[in-house]
Amino acid sequence: MEISLNNVGRRFNKEWIFKNINYIFKQGEKYAILGPNGSGKSTLLSVLLGNLTPSEGEITYTDPDEIRVENIYQSISFAAPYLDLVEEFTLQETIDFHFQFKAYADGLNASSVLSLLGLEKSQDKALKHFSSGMKQRTKLALACCANTSVLILDEPTSNLDTQGIDWYLALIEKFATNKMIIVGSNQAHEYDFCKHQLSITDYK
Ligand SMILES: Nc1ncnc2c1ncn2[C@@H]1O[C@H](COP(=O)(O)OP(=O)(O)OP(=O)(O)O)[C@@H](O)[C@H]1O
């Protein structure tokens, strides 16, 4: 997959959040999108995900032929603290539901995702009874264990304790090798592994 941004800008009402982004995201490479609170990291991730249209410019997805933006969700996995899970589902139901829409990464199945999460004892518990850290782990595991070529993570370690942060980094190491990863962050421990860095403030 290659994601190509040609002069991309986004505004809300009259306020430009970013402008004139010309950039190519390449398969297998790791990118951090950096900037202070409110600078536009999540907005750019939403544009890359196809959830928001650019206000100007063009974004194209190629793998190897061009993919229409309405189909791009099939190639991208996404996790963010503001992403809602179905609170009434148990963990087991959440995993089964998610993988009806996306294939498991090679060699994985529902029980290996559960053991990777380390939450086997909570498999029949409804997500509404999960702590915020348990929910964040669940979102990261669902995203990382899917067989998609692109992984987009917004503030991946929010709500995670030190042990959770180590768990996240191990998860990335295990599943990241061939994926394009884009991390929106302002905490170095979340994106230290990213070779490329884009600062939103360069596009104001
Ligand atoms: N739907 C919207 N309508 C109007 N303004 C919006 C909307 N979504 C975001 N914004 C504004 O766009 C700007 C960038 O917000 P965004 O959430 O992308 O920043 P961020 O860098 O991800 O912030 P944080 O680090 O706090 O998560 C902010 O000023 C925000 O108020």
**Could you state the CATH homologous superfamily?**
P-loop containing nucleotide triphosphate hydrolases
Rg (C-alpha, Å)? 17 Å
Strand content: 25-35%
Small-molecule components bound: adenosine-5'-triphosphate
Shape: globular
* Separation of the first and last Cα atoms: 27 Å
SS summary, helix count: 6
CATH class descriptor name: Alpha Beta
What is the helical fraction, as a range of percent?
25-40%
The helix-and-strand class reads alpha/beta
Largest beta sheet, briefly? Answer: 5 strands, parallel
Mean pLDDT: 96
Give the CATH topology. Answer: Rossmann fold
Question: What's the β-strand tally?
Answer: 9
Tell me the series of helices and strands, N- to C-terminal: EEEHEEEHHHEHEHE
Gross CATH architecture: 3-Layer(aba) Sandwich
- How many individual domains? 1
- Poorly predicted spans: none
Record the strand order, biggest sheet.
6-7-8-3-9
Domain ABC transporter: 3-204
Pfam families: ABC_tran
GO molecular function: ATP binding; ATP hydrolysis activity
Keywords: ATP-binding, Nucleotide-binding, Transport
